[in-house]
Design a protein that fits this description.
Elements (H helix, E strand, L loop, with lengths): L2 H22 L1 E5 L12 E6 L3 H13 L5 E5 L6 H6 L4 E6 L3 H17 L3 E4 L4 E4 L8 H10 L4 E8 L16 H4 L2 E2 L4 E5 L6 E2 L5 E5 L1 H6 L6 E7 L5 E2 L7 E2 L2 E2 L4 E5 L6 H11 L3 H16 L11 E2 L5 H4 L7 H8 L3
Helix pairs in contact: 1-4, 8-9
Length: 337
């Protein structure tokens, strides 16, 4: 047995034990059990906590893509997240009270294994809105057909922070229309590195790992921007073993997607304060400590840079090199005009 295979076995054994604890501490609190019948669309899964500002827009976005199976796992919300999510007919609502910092990956693995085995899974955070090149012409069901035709089992998506010109400590709290005002993006501060994920095969060698972006430029730190949210959960897929960003054992598509990321919507200051207090994110919430340090000096910090632009659909992100699409995919999309 090689060291690498031994390490994988240990990780898998640990993952199985953690998932079992999640299974023993989870309850169904609302909505239908997702149908196991294939409808050509992925099952959307998400972990949520105190996310009332996002839920309605989140469900509306994925409904517009054609998704009718949305599974949310609530991890101790004290606001109206559960009530709002429970009112949406597409949403299956679960609850688990285990500590987020220890069991966040196990909760994600439980959701995907319980609701996505042998089918497409779209795992996204509640502040992430998935899109892909030519989505105005190619429906999500046809997009999945393209992936299946070429035996791809995962899609890399790059996180794109969308933001207002300036932060305000209170103006976004309870604002359900945040998407209309968070339309600026900035790719000038993104660091690109070679793509390195164990066991994955790239469909296009131009795919890279992204770091930084506007959050690094304004607050410091170096957030990881590359994720694998859309994947087919077969016997080869190993989701969320090392972190919450990647799937191992995948044949990665020759087209990348985007996760429109609304980090600054809602009561951003309150979320920062709680994350710093609870230390429940990576490296004892180091990224949130960076936010807190800047916000202490200037709670109205300006986010807009000289390089910031208004977003106008995903295809501009191909033109400026943020996303990639192979010539084969472009021909496929052109055939759907």
């Amino acid at each position: 047995m090689t060291c690498q295979s031994s390490g994988t076995d240990i990780r898998l054994a640990t993952a199985v034990m953690e998932e079992q604890l999640v299974a023993e501490n989870i309850e169904h609190i609302g909505g239908p059990q997702p149908s196991l019948e294939e409808d050509g669309f992925p099952t959307v899964v998400s972990l949520v906590r105190d996310a009332e500002v996002y839920v309605e827009a989140f469900v509306g976005h994925y409904r517009s893509l054609g998704c009718r199976r949305i599974v949310m796992l609530d991890n101790g919300s004290s606001d109206r997240t559960v009530q709002i999510a429970g009112a949406a007919p597409e949403v299956t609502l679960m609850r688990c009270g285990l500590p987020f910092d220890r069991f966040k990956r196990a909760m994600r693995r439980y959701l995907t294994r319980a609701y996505c085995i042998h089918r497409w899974c779209l795992y996204v955070d509640i502040d992430e809105f998935f899109d892909y090149p030519d989505s105005d012409k190619v429906g999500l069901d046809r997009f999945l057909s393209y992936l299946e035709q070429h035996r791809f089992t995962a899609v890399v998506a790059q996180m794109l922070d969308l933001f207002p010109a300036r932060l305000s400590p209170t103006s976004d709290a309870g604002d359900l229309l945040f998407r209309s005002r968070h339309r600026l993006y900035d790719i000038a501060h993104i660091e690109r590195r070679p793509y390195l994920v164990p066991g994955n095969i790239l469909g296009d060698p131009r795919i890279e790992m992204y770091y930084g972006g506007i959050r690094a430029a304004v607050f410091g730190g170096n957030p990881w921007l590359t994720k694998h949210p859309l994947f087919f959960f077969d016997d080869n897929a190993l989701p969320f073993l090392e972190d919450s960003h990647r799937v191992e054992g995948a044949h990665v598509a020759d087209v990348t997607g985007v996760l429109y990321h609304y980090k600054f919507a809602g009561d951003f200051q309150a979320r920062v304060d709680r994350a710093v207090r609870e230390e429940n994110y990576y490296n004892a919430s180091h990224e949130y400590r960076c936010y807190a340090s800047v916000l202490r000096d200037d709670p109205f910090v300006e986010l807009k840079q000289k390089s910031s632009k208004d977003l106008n659909g995903p295809n501009i992100l191909i033109d400026n090199g943020f996303l990639i699409a192979s010539e084969r995919y472009k021909r496929f999309a052109a055939a759907h005009l």
